[in-house]
Amino acid sequence: MSDRKATLTLDGKSYDLPVLSPTVGPDVLDIRKLYGEADVFTYDPGFTSTAACESTITYIDGDVGELLYRGYPIEQLAEKSSYLESCYLLLYGELPTHDQLSDFTARVTRHTMVHEQMHQFYRGFRRDAHPMATMVGVVGAMSAFYHDSTDVNDPWQREVAAIRMIAKLPTIAAMAYKYSVGQPFVYPKNSLSYAGNFLSMCFAVPAEDYVVSPILEKAMDRIMLLHADHEQNASTSTVRLAGSSGANPFACIAAGIACLWGPAHGGANQACLEMLKEIGTVDRIPEYVAKAKDKNSGFRLMGFGHRVYKNFDPRAKVMKESADEVLGLLGIDNNPLLQVAKELERIALEDEYFISKKLYPNVDFYSGIILEAMGFPTSMFTPIFAISRTVGWISQWKEMIAEKNQKIGRPRQLYIGAPRRDYVDLRHR
Ligand code: ACO
Predict the structure, then answer these.
(1) Could you write out the three-class secondary structure of 332-385?
(2) Which of 11, 43, 180, 371 would you call most buried, defined as having the most Cβ atoms within 10 angstroms of its Cβ?
(3) Section 300-322 average pLDDT
(4) Are 239 and 396 contacting, i.e. CB atoms less than 8 angstroms apart?
């Protein structure tokens, strides 16, 4: 730690705030003792200026549009790595050796089946339930099925829970999908890759053989890799906050899934594709751009803007290339939605409103187009995000639990309600 200090002066008194320096990125003022010494809180709704933890996992430089997993740029990983290799990297901190990767892959692969009784659990949901609603319930229920990995104080149980969730989330999401379309559940197949197995569990039916398309398998793997972790975003912070009370890991991930579902977060991929469909044709784009600029319309361009990226989202660049590649290989590169998306991006990026507010396409702008081309309904977009992000949530949760000085998360508030007053009897109100 450096001995640099910032000084806060309040009511004639000065308070020193130590300055902490990260490996990369802006310095951080340490205000932990501020309340004790100066009797004041800091106010930062939405945590726009607040670091809530130390972390070694993911780094984002929003000004230059950079994303690093354990120091490695996302573009390099998207080109050269695979989802499971990146999972290993996020979980354990280093790229695996050949043997480490084989062992990790085998461990994940052997945990893909879910407890058979969980099948009954699904049948309690309405058929038309959104798969995210089902997933929140089923992942939360895992703590009722896997008692032997809920003790957060036991590093081995944490490890087993981590592998279980990375392995079972695709099965759980695919089952939610199968249930919603009235088809039988498809069991995982250990001979397939992580991404290929997920496609098979979603699209195979017992009546026919299903061959995984290598194009779709690669695209799925890349989508998963691009979504694997993203620093202290809303769902990750939710997982950390839930976990800070000592809640079991399955409950924490269920909380993360619930948070991810919101349209301002992971739900944006579904909302974005629905928006592109609503726009429909290139000639209607100006109307929607005008609507997005009109504060009274309540409308936002979904898939645009990001709390941290004030330059291009590097994942969006890779995703756009993938959309071109996948749709080209599938022979549908004249897909009207892709045309609308590209033209919308071009027009928005030339528009003063979007330029001045530094609004660029985010990862969700192009992912939905690929997923739809693969045959997924829009309701499955966010579940796929949840599968992919599970490793990030778990890595962050494990990091937090293992921290020596870990405390329960407990923000304070700026109270603006009624001051103390006396109870008025019902007869006098
Ligand atoms: N369309 C139009 N205007 C926008 C958009 C948008 N998509 N996003 C932000 N703005 C405007 C806001 O109106 C605001 O304008 P103002 O300063 O005149 O009031 C300004 O840009 C800043 O917006 P905030 O909401 O304050 O920015 P914040 O950092 O809180 O929000 C968010 C980021 C939630 C992602 C926002 O950009 C948004 O709602 N985007 C659309 C939803 C989306 O794509 N979410 C996915 C995020 S990425 C992910 O989770 C994978």
Answers:
(1) CCCCHHHHHHHHHHHHHHHCHHHHHCCCCECCHHHHHHHHHHHCCCHHHHHHHH
(2) 371
(3) 90
(4) yes
Tell me what the pLDDT averaged over the chain comes to. Answer: 94
Among residues 178, 158, 208, the alpha carbon closest in space to that of 114 is found at: 178
**How many angstroms separate the alpha carbon of residue 205 from the centre of ligand 1?**
41
State the Cα–Cα distance between residues 140 and 267, nearest whole angstrom. 19
CA of 233 to the centre of ligand 1 (A): 14
Structure confidence at residue 332 (pLDDT): 82
**196 burial type by CB count under 10 A (0-12 exposed, 13-18 middle, 19+ buried):** buried
With cut-offs at 50, 70 and 90, classify the pLDDT of residue 1: low
Identify the residues whose C-beta falls under 6 Å from ligand 1. Answer: 264-266, 268, 292, 300-307, 357, 359, 362-364
Q: Is the pTM of this model over 0.85?
A: yes
Active site residues: 306, 364
The single residue listed with the structure tokens 């709390």 is 307
Half-sphere exposure of 93 (CA within 13 A, CB side): 4
Contact assessment for residue 265 and residue 234, using Cβ atoms and an 8 Å cutoff: yes
Q: How far is the CA of 289 from the centre of ligand 1 (A)?
A: 14
